[in-house]
Amino acid sequence: MINTPYKELEPGHRQIHPALQFLIFIGVFIGALFIGTMVGAGIVTALYGINTLTAVGNLNVTSPHFLNSLWILQIAGTTLPILATPVFFSYVITGEPRDYMKPTFRFPWMLFPLVLLIMLISNPTIEVLSNINQKMQLPHFLSGVQKWMEDSESTAQKLTDTMLQMKTLGDLLLNVLLIGLLTAIVEELMFRGVLQTIFLRWTKSTHAAIWITAILFSAFHMEFFGFLPRLMLGMLFGYFVAWSGSIWPAVWAHFLNNGTAVIATYLFQHKIIKVNPDDQHLFSVGSYIFSLVIMVFLLFLYRKTALEHPQMTED
């Protein structure tokens, strides 16, 4: 059992069973997604017309204003609802924003360089998980599901490639801020903040809460052939929060993961580097083993550093 700041949480004055909390959270999130999507669609229609909105729905990337419209729909229909839901839930439903969103900065700052090292050394492990994931095949009688998964993956990749077309440094900075930083903040507040806390109070197990949340985090992205590497990232982010009592080490890790991918894509597009960031065959077997061993060692060091200063997680 892990001795973490999570176990010091006390039920607030608005006690709701965690199972009901989860259902309420899902309901609020679905409502926020609906409202956000309607607002985004309204903005696109007002600015560019209904034909542009239709073109986005049909993935007609050659349509004028396609990229701008895609960003409007992404931010209004996904990013802002992911932010609004945990904030509303923490303040209005539970009345415990400190415990559910974990915004405290009272943790050892040495955790930030440790997170950086862990994220760097984890790349070969993530690659091997991705390679395993890519080779997974469903049984023949589920061939229809397999095709749907492949089509969904292709659609998601097409949208990602469109959003990551960066012609200028300004485009790069905007993507680093939106895809790197903003996405990291809102997703960590939702998953490692609220959902992981709900599952901790429900299961009474830090490990179970982290892994359940990581599974939901990976499934949420609807990229089936990237499920395993994203599951591992969710696990890492979960332990970063559980051991520190703060959301910010996980936000930093998430930002490093997303921001590095954006920068590498820009450098490859402009032929500054020759390595395609989408290539999943960059490391050797020895690198995989070395990565896993050092990553585990650094995680133990992170845990030791975080838990040696428990008073820093208390307000």
Key structural traits:
about 325 residues, single chain, mainly alpha, about 75% helix
Structural features, described:
- The chain is mainly alpha-helical.
- The longest helix has about 35 residues, at about 170-205.
- It has one domain.
- It contains 12 helices and no strands.
- The chain is globular, with a radius of gyration of 20 Å.
Short summary of the structure?
The chain has 315 residues and is mainly alpha-helical. The chain has helices spanning 18-48, 50-57, 66-94, 97-101, 111-121, 123-134, 143-163, 169-203, 206-220, 227-244, 248-269, 285-307.
List the helices and strands and how they pair.
Layout: H1 18-48, H2 50-57, H3 66-94, H4 97-101, H5 111-121, H6 123-134, H7 143-163, H8 169-203, H9 206-220, H10 227-244, H11 248-269, H12 285-307
Helix pairs in contact: 1-2, 1-3, 1-8, 3-8, 5-11, 5-12, 6-10, 6-12, 8-9, 8-10, 8-11, 9-10, 10-11, 10-12
Order of helices and strands: HHHHHHHHHHHH
Percent range for β-strand residues: under 5%
Envelope shape: globular
Given helix and strand content, the structural type is mainly alpha
Q: What separation lies between the terminal Cα atoms?
A: 24 Å
Specify the helix fraction band: over 70%
Mean pLDDT: 89
Please state the CA-atom Rg, rounded to the nearest Å: 20 Å
Number of domains: 1
Low-confidence stretches: 1-13, 311-315
State the total count of DSSP E strands.
0
Major sheet characteristics: none
- If helices are DSSP runs of H or I spanning 4 or more residues, what is the number of helices? 12
